[in-house]
Amino acid sequence: MEVVPVTAELQESSATTTSERVPVAELLRRRRPGTSLESAFYTDEDVHALDLDVVFSRQWIFAAAAAEIPEAGDYLTVDVGSSSVVVVRDDDEQVRAFHNVCRHRGSRLLEDRGFVGNIVCPYHRWTYDLEGSLLHAEAQPPGFDKTCFSLRPVHVRDLAGLVFICLADEAPEDFDAVAELVEPHLRPYRLGEAKVAAQHDLAEQGNWKLVMENNRECYHCDGHPELITAYFPLFAYDEEDISPRLRPLYERYQRAAADLEVVRRAQGVPMVDHRQLADRVVGFQLTHMPLDGEGRSFGAHGASLSRRLLGDVQDPVFGDLSIHLQPNSWFHVLGDHAVVFSVMPTSVSTSVLRTTWLVHPDAEEGVDYDLATLRAVWDATNEQDRALVAATQKGVADPAYVPGPYSMVEDDVEAFVSWYVTRLREHLGPDAVPPTVPDARSGD
Amino acid sequence: MEVVPVTAELQESSATTTSERVPVAELLRRRRPGTSLESAFYTDEDVHALDLDVVFSRQWIFAAAAAEIPEAGDYLTVDVGSSSVVVVRDDDEQVRAFHNVCRHRGSRLLEDRGFVGNIVCPYHRWTYDLEGSLLHAEAQPPGFDKTCFSLRPVHVRDLAGLVFICLADEAPEDFDAVAELVEPHLRPYRLGEAKVAAQHDLAEQGNWKLVMENNRECYHCDGHPELITAYFPLFAYDEEDISPRLRPLYERYQRAAADLEVVRRAQGVPMVDHRQLADRVVGFQLTHMPLDGEGRSFGAHGASLSRRLLGDVQDPVFGDLSIHLQPNSWFHVLGDHAVVFSVMPTSVSTSVLRTTWLVHPDAEEGVDYDLATLRAVWDATNEQDRALVAATQKGVADPAYVPGPYSMVEDDVEAFVSWYVTRLREHLGPDAVPPTVPDARSGD
Amino acid sequence: MEVVPVTAELQESSATTTSERVPVAELLRRRRPGTSLESAFYTDEDVHALDLDVVFSRQWIFAAAAAEIPEAGDYLTVDVGSSSVVVVRDDDEQVRAFHNVCRHRGSRLLEDRGFVGNIVCPYHRWTYDLEGSLLHAEAQPPGFDKTCFSLRPVHVRDLAGLVFICLADEAPEDFDAVAELVEPHLRPYRLGEAKVAAQHDLAEQGNWKLVMENNRECYHCDGHPELITAYFPLFAYDEEDISPRLRPLYERYQRAAADLEVVRRAQGVPMVDHRQLADRVVGFQLTHMPLDGEGRSFGAHGASLSRRLLGDVQDPVFGDLSIHLQPNSWFHVLGDHAVVFSVMPTSVSTSVLRTTWLVHPDAEEGVDYDLATLRAVWDATNEQDRALVAATQKGVADPAYVPGPYSMVEDDVEAFVSWYVTRLREHLGPDAVPPTVPDARSGD
Ligand code: FES
Ligand code: FES
Ligand code: FES
User: Fold this and answer.
1) N or C terminus of chain C: which is more exposed, having fewer CB within 10 Å?
2) Given CB atoms, is B122 within the 8 Å cutoff of chain C?
3) What is the CATH number of the domain that holds A196?
4) How many distinct structural domains can be found in chain C?
5) Do B355 and B421 share a structural domain?
6) Which residues of B215-237 are buried (b: 16+ CB within 10 A; e: fewer)?
7) Distance, CA A355 to ligand 3 centroid (Å)?
8) Measured between CB atoms, does A234 come within 8 Å of chain C?
9) Phi/psi of residue A158, each to 5°?
10) pLDDT, tens digit, for every residue of B128-141?
11) A243: pLDDT confidence band, cut at 50, 70 and 90?
C-alpha cells in the first residue's frame, strides 16, 4: 500500500454549517480520496433522494435468499425506499418480481410474506396470475383491455440461491459477468435448497452508507470479541507489517490457508480470490479465508455450529467464503452454514440490516444445531456495530465534523466510497461533476 | 353510462420518480378524467398545503353535530390543519365560532370540549364573552382599546342540526341554496335535539382524499360483510346490467322503494333525490334508499338499533337518507338513529375519520338501545376501510404507481375528484391551469 | 413606563398563511416593538436554522454548573442543535470544552456524563488527552502527523461556578466585562464548590423563545400558587400603580429590602442591581429581591429549604439574587440553595428546560434538606409553565394568530425579543434589514 502524508491541510477542509447547503455535484467534485465523506452524504435529504434513485433504483441490489420462497406460490415483499417489490416463485418455479402496486387505484397487493395462488388486490379484487397478467376485474366497460393492466415487472436474477433485483428499466448488464465469476464458488453449497434457520431485522440509527462502511473494515474488530476468536488476528496488518513477534501466528495462518486449498481442490472447487470493488458497475470482492482454532465455523475458536454440512461440502474445515457486493450486501458461506446480510435505507439517517442464517435443508433445530448458538456471534457483532454506527451518525451530523483520513487497513471502505461516488458522478454527468485527481492510496 | 375504451395509453402515463417534483398547476392540467389521481396529490407537501388552504380554509366544512353543544356555554374545538376553531353556543343559544387564539400573545384558549361562562385565556387571564368581545385585560396602558381585541370570528351555519364552518374571509354563498334544498329532508329527524350516543375518532394512515374516495364507491363493498346485510346487494350494478338471475332481487328492491315513498309521503316528507356532486361549489348528493330485510336500520338484515324513533318519524321503516357533501362529510339518517361522518387531514399522509352516532334525546342506553350493537356495523366497516386506505396510501406513494381507470360503478369517486380539481384550478386561475378535455364518462 | 396607545392598527397586522413564506429579513424589518413576534419566529424551519446558527452557535450560552464536574477527568456533554460539546475538567482542574466528534471518521466520543482518564473513541480507539491532543491512532502511514488531529476546541468560561460556552470561532468579547460585573455578587455563594442535589430535564412542546418569554414576565404568576407565597405579590405593579389598598404591603416590602441591604453590607456583598438586557451582546439583568414571610427561601411563605447555608453566607435571610442572561439561562441564588435554569432548542417547536438544584457541599439529603421539598416549588412551577408554553406554541402556529400588545409588566419580554431581533439583524446586515423605528415603550 502506497501512502501519502496526511497533513494539516485536512483540518482546513470544508466544514459545512447546517445553514448552507452545498449542491451534490460540488460535494462530489471536492471529494478527497483517502478520507471519509463529508457530512451531507449522511444527512442531506437531496443526497438521500439521489441515493434512492441512482443506487437503490438503478443498481442490482440483493433482495433475499431464494430459500425464503422455496415452493411455487411462495412470495415475499421487499421495501426499497417508497417502492415495494413482490418476489414470487411462479408455477414453473421461476423467481419473478413485480411492483407491489395494483393497476386499478394503486393499493398495495401483498404484505410481508406468504403463499398465494393468484395475486388478488384487497381493495376491489382485481386478480393477477403469478406472471403478473390481469385475469379479472369487475364492472369494466366493454372496451376495457386487460392486457394493458399487467403488473409492472422488476428485473430479477437468482445467483446460485441469492436473489438480486434491479428496479431500473434497463438493468446494468455487468451483473451476468460477475455472476459467472461468482457462481462456481457458490455452487457446491447449494444455497437455493438450504433451509432458513433464522432471520433478523436490526434497526440502524444511521445512513445506509455508514452501515456499509462499518462492514468494509476490521479496523474496529477489537470491539467484536465473539467474532474474532474464529479469525486469525491479522486483520489490522499488511504482510510487510508482520513483526517478529507476529511471525509464528502468521505462519500458522499460512499453513491453514494451504490446507484449505488442498481440501477445496480435492472437491474441485475454485479458491482464487477476486477484488473488483470499485472498478466495475457490479463491484464485488470474493475471498477464501481459513479460520483459526478448530477452523470449522463461527463458534468459539472456530467450532462447528451445525452438524450437517451444506450442499456437497464434505470436509468440515472448508473455510469462510466471504463475498462483498456493492451497494448493499455481503455473505459468509461456511461448510456448515451461511450468513446473508443486506442493508436497506429507511430514511437519510436510518436503515435496516437484515441477517439471514441458512443451514442444510435437513438440519434439525435442537438436534443438528442450537439456534441461539448458531445466531450468537452475529447477533452480538451486529449489535456492537449498531452502536458504533449510531454514534457515527450523530458525529457526522455535527457541524464540527470534518472528514478524516482512512488508516492503512481501510482500503475497502475507500473502495466502497469510490464505487458510490463514481455511480453518482456518472449519473450527474461529466459536465456537472469535473473529475478530481485519482486516489494515490487505492490499490483498487 | 357512456364508456370510453381504456387502452395501453394509460400504461405510458406519467409515473413520477421521487426526485422530480411536478408543479401543481401541471398536475392539474394533465389530470385525466376517468382515472385516479397521480401520486403527488396524495404525497406532496405542496399539494397538501394547497389542500389546507384552498379546500379546508376556504370551503364550507362539516364541524360537528349541533347536538354536541346542546346548552348555552357548551363548546367544542375543531382542528383544521394548524388552525383550531372554538364552536360555542352563546347565551342566546346561537352557535358561534371563533379562532381559538388569544389576542394577547396567542395562547390556545380552550381545549377539547366543555362548558364555560366566559372564555378566559389560561396564560394571562384575558377574558372574552361568548360573542368574542374582550371584557378584561390586566395591566394595560391607558390608551388600550379593548374593542380592537375581540376574538376573530369564523363563519358558521347550523343546517337542521349539522354545524358547518368556513374559515375564509368570504364564505362561498352557495351554501345557503344547498341548505334550502337539504333542510326539508332533515327537518323531520330533528337532529339538533338528538342525543350523542357515541363518538369515535379513527386515525387513518392515508391522505384525506383517499378516505373520501373510499367513501364514494361501493365497488369494494364485498369487504364489508356487516354493512351489506342491510342493503340490497345491487351496488355494483347499473339498471341495464340487471341479469335475469338478479331480476327477482331487483324487483324486491323496487317494491321496497315504492313502499318507502308511500310512508314518507304520508308524513309529508320529500323523497326526491339530488346529485350535484361536481358542478357546484357546495357539491352534494342526497339519496333516499330503502333497506333490505326488515328494512328498519343497520342491524343485521335491516334490524332496528334503537326503540325510539328520531324526531317526528312515525314509521320504523323510514329508509336511509344518505347525504354526501364535498369536501369532507357524509351522513346516514335512519328512522331510529343517524350516523355522522367527517374527515380531517392531519398531515399529507394521515387523517382522522370522526364518526358520531345520534339517537332520540330520550333514548336510554341499555334500555332503548345497546351501545355496542348500535356502533357495531360502522365500527367494523370503518376499520375495514382504514386497512384499505392505508394499503392504498402506501401504493400510491410507490414510484411504480400509475393512475388506473375507474370502473363503471365509481362515478362518485370521479365526481369527488372532479370537484376537488375544479377548486384547485379556480384557485390557481385559468392562466396557470389551461383546461383539459371534459370527461366523456361522467354523467355528472 | 411610557405608554403608547394600542389601536386597531394591530388587528390589520400581518397574518401569514401557511402557504406563503416571508423571508426572515422582511420579518425582522417589520417587527413592531411592544408586540409579540410573528408566527414564523416560532414555526419556520429557516428561522430555526438561523436561531441555531446566530444565537446558539455564536453567542455565549450557559452549559452547566461547574459543580457537575467537580474532579479532574469528570465530564459532561451538552447538545446544542446537532452539535455536541464535551465539557471536561482537565488534569490541572481547568474546565475545558471540545467538539464531541472524532477526527478519524467522526464518531461521537463520549455520551451523557462520567469520568475518563483519556478520551478514547469507541470506534477505532483513537485516543486523546484531556487537552484534546491525539495521543494514539493505530495503523497510520508513516507521514501521519498526530498534531493535525487534535479535538476541535470550544470557548469556555467558568463564571463563579457557572460554566458558559461559545461555539463560534470568535467568541463575543463582551462576556468578560459582564463577568466582572456579576462575579462579586456570586462570589460569597461559592457555587463552584456546591453539591448538585438534583437535576431535571423537562421536555417543552414549544420553541425555545416561548420558554424564555415565559420566564421573563410575572404577568402570568397567578398561575404559580406554590411560587408566589415566597414573593411579595407586587410583580404586576409599577411603583406609581400602588393603590392605597396596596400601600401597607408595599411598605412591608420596602422594609424587607432595607433589612436585606443591611445584612448584605455586613457581609461586604454588593446589592446594586443591573439591567442591560437588550443593549449589550451579553444581555443580562441582576436583581436582589427580598423574600416575603420568613424571607429565607422558596419554602411556603419564605421558609428555609436547607439547613446549611451556601458558601460564606451567614444570615439565612439573604434574599433572592436573581440573574437573567440572554439567550438561554437564569438563576435564583438564595442563602440556602441555588436553582440554575437553561433552555436548549431541540427542534423549531420543542426544547428542553434543564433545572439544577445546588446546595452546600456538606448538606446531607434527609438530614439537612428533604429532596422532594427542595424541588417542590420549581417542579410545580416548571410544570405549570410547560402547559402554558405548549398552549402558546399551538396558538402562534395557528394562521389566525396576530401579534398582540405587551402589557405594562412585560418589559423584560420586550427586552428579550429586542435582544434577539438585534442579533439576527446584525447577522443579516444593515442592507438586508433596514432598521425599524425604536420602541417608544422600552425603558431599556
Ligand atoms: S385498487 Fe386494486 S382493485 Fe382497486
Ligand atoms: S396569551 Fe392570552 S392572556 Fe396572554
Ligand atoms: S471514528 Fe474515532 S477512531 Fe475511528
Assistant:
1) N
2) yes
3) 3.90.380.10
4) 2
5) yes
6) bbbbbbbebbebbbbbbbebebb
7) 25
8) no
9) -105, 105
10) 999 999 999 999 99
11) confident
